[in-house]
Amino acid sequence: MRRLLVLASGLVLAACSHRRPELAATPSSTAPRAIAVYRTIAESIYVSTTKRVVAVATASLDSGCAAATCGALAARWGVETLWWAKGDSAEARDARDDLLARAAAPFDVHSIPHGQSMLFAADPGDVPPDGASVQEWIRFRSTHADAAGAVRMSPVGFSRSGKTAVTIVDWRCGPTCGHTLGVALTATSDSSWAISEMLLLSAKKN
Questions:
Q1: How far apart are CA 159 and CA 175, in angstroms?
Q2: Is the full-model pTM beyond 0.85?
């Protein structure tokens, strides 16, 4: 069984449910909170460990899957279990249900890098795909401030209380470098967040 991971700089880089209207608020009211979550993840995990600029894809992860073997989204995104619950399953379930409700309606996140000197906006189509060559990564870095890599995140799910958030993170940093994480956060104020738990969903092998 996959084990929970705590934030560790060396480790992280080595490597549909029904909509619930009472949880899913309008994009305009949730976007500022989601942007704060995205910035916390990009800076706390990737900028802090690489000490380099990080590219942030300006559209959230697509929840679609056309392959015949695709399972339910909750399983593909690793939230079928409440691994971040910390004894409060209702709070965790709220955040998960909100995440899944938002998955089919991703929103533009161009404002993430605004005012953040170590974050660089990247069009999702510019981010090298899985299996990209070294040359493709060289070209990407030459046009994206020599970024250490590129991060793309799912929509953010929030609990009713507003104290818990959960999202899925895809990090790409080279032909054999990258991973997918589930990240849970706890609100430390009305506008700031701290990472509380992470779950490694997949990792590229060197």
A1: 36
A2: no
Q: What pLDDT sits at residue 15?
A: 39
What is the mean pLDDT of the segment spanning 129-145? 93
**What's the helix, strand, coil split of the chain in %, to 5?**
30, 25, 45
Q: What percent of the chain has pLDDT over 90?
A: 65
Cα–Cα distance between 44 and 118 in angstroms, integer?
A: 11
Spatial distance between the Cα atoms of 12 and 22, rounded to a whole number of angstroms: 35
Contact 37, 44 (CB under 8 A): no
Q: Is the pLDDT of residue 22 over 70?
A: no
Q: How far is CA 2 from CA 11, 74, 82, 83, in A?
A: 15, 15, 12, 10
State the Cα–Cα distance between residues 101 and 27, nearest whole angstrom.
12
Decide: 24 and 98 in contact? Cβ < 8 Å: yes
Whether residue 146 has pLDDT greater than 80: yes
CA atoms of 169 and 166, how far apart (whole Å): 10
Length of the chain: 206
- 3-state secondary structure string across 153-206: ECCCEECCCCCEEEEEEEEEEECCEEEEEEEEEEECCCCCEEEEEEEEEEECCC
Which pLDDT value is given to residue 65? 83
**Residue found under tokens 């899944």:** 100
Helix (H, G, I), strand (E, B) or coil at 58: coil
| Residue 206: pLDDT band with limits 50, 70, 90 | low
Residues 108/59, Cβ–Cβ less than 8 Å = yes
